[in-house]
Design brief:
Layout (H helix, E strand, L loop, with lengths): L1 E2 L8 E5 L3 E5 L1 H6 L15 E5 L4 H11 L11 H13 L4 H17 L3 H11 L2 H9 L3 H5 L2 E4 L4 E4 L2 H6 L6 H11 E2 L11 E2 L3 H7 L6
Parallel strand pairs: 1-3, 2-4
Antiparallel strand pairs: 2-3, 5-6, 7-8
Length: 214
């Protein structure tokens, strides 16, 4: 296995999906975790963690963020940022870390028409505020032709509307179906070609959205 070129020091050995070892400080990891993932009590011991769900690039971003007193918004490609968001969710990282990641996700996602990827991330985070914020950045093309993040294959892919809904947190399925029904505008076949469009007032859609857990 290779040792990461930057993260070479610490008492915790993290192994990535691409078999790269990153070293981290147990105190920093402990402070950045809200659950038992990094529950280190003895900071003089050496630990090992299997983080093979994620790439070294994304783990490195996570360590960069938690290793400074004033963390900054991550600067990376969109795939790495989505993986970083997944790491933060799994580790139940504090809100300030997760918000920095979400701030980085929105402009890059909008630029690539990946607003559905944002919506799905919000459902899995149970974050209605971020869901509404993502809706405000929606566009007709991005809504009708969803692009979602395939976590397993580390790529973005095009899917149907119904596949996008099925990729969401199951508790959100009913609300997403209602959302689709509320924004689609079906044409009158008597007056022209059958072309489906959507509302243009996404701010109104976001303001009126009310998540009701099933």
């Amino acid at each position: 296995m290779k040792i990461h070129s930057f993260h070479q020091y610490g008492n915790v050995k993290l192994t990535s999906k691409d078999d790269i070892v990153l070293m981290a400080d147990s105190r920093r990891l402990y402070d950045a975790s809200g659950n038992l993932v990094f529950c280190y009590r003895d900071h003089d011991k050496t630990y090992e963690e299997d983080m093979k769900e994620w790439s070294a690039a994304s783990i490195s971003l996570f360590l960069d963020m938690i290793s400074v007193n004033q963390p900054q918004e991550p600067k990376a490609d969109l795939i790495s940022i989505f993986e970083l968001a997944d790491i933060c969710r799994t580790c139940e990282s504090p809100t300030n870390y997760r918000q920095l990641v979400k701030n980085a996700m929105i402009p890059k996602s909008v630029k690539k028409n990946c607003q559905w990827a944002l919506l799905l991330h919000a459902t899995h985070d149970e974050d209605e505020a971020f869901f509404k914020s993502s809706l405000r950045h929606m566009k007709q093309e991005a809504f009708l032709f969803p692009i979602i993040f395939d976590r397993e294959n580390r790529e973005f892919k095009s899917v149907s509307l119904w596949e996008a809904i099925n990729a969401a947190n199951p508790y959100w399925h009913d609300d997403l179906r209602k959302l689709v029904q509320s924004v689609l505008i079906l044409p009158d076949q008597r007056t022209g070609p059958f072309v489906i469009t959507t509302t243009a007032d996404w701010k109104k859609v976001a303001d009126e959205f009310d998540y009701r857990q099933s």
